[in-house]
Amino acid sequence: MANPYRKSTRLPEGSTARFPIVPRLIATSFGVGFLPLCPGTWGALAAIVLWLPLYLWASAPVALWVTVAAVAIFTVAGTWASNVAERYWGEDPVVACIDETVGQWITLLPVAPFCPWWEIVLALALFRFFDIFKPLGIRSTERLPGGWGMMADDILAGIYGAIVLLIINLTWYYV
Known about the structure:
The chain is mainly α. The chain has helices spanning 15-18, 21-27, 39-57, 60-89, 98-108, 118-133, 138-141, 146-174. The protein has one domain (22-174).
């Protein structure tokens, strides 16, 4: 019996060539969605790679506000690009992984530069857990229309991951 939650990675013949480059780059998190196997994980890893310079070299307030700005900008751009992606590639195409990138950035919000490096790994694990298993109402957000449905489940998964990290940080640093 086929897994009902496994999505095909096959795209309609010739659709990528017709897909305009700007929304295609945004929807695929600058192309990482085309990498073989697990494009959602690649999208989350792209978020970490893009965010890592903030962790290493920025102050905590700068890292926080740049991450918040990236989340806001790419939520809007990702919703638009995901709507365009559905026109070319069908409903919720697996290669469109900007939603995972944004969700991972949300999970990274509590990981300020003074937090230990292992929280980045934990943030990835938490986000992917909530994104894959979709507990606590996450699955129901997929029913939103178009790009909103594609983005909303990962945004909520990111929020849940961030809440868990906040609880860990509050317990770890203040108890």
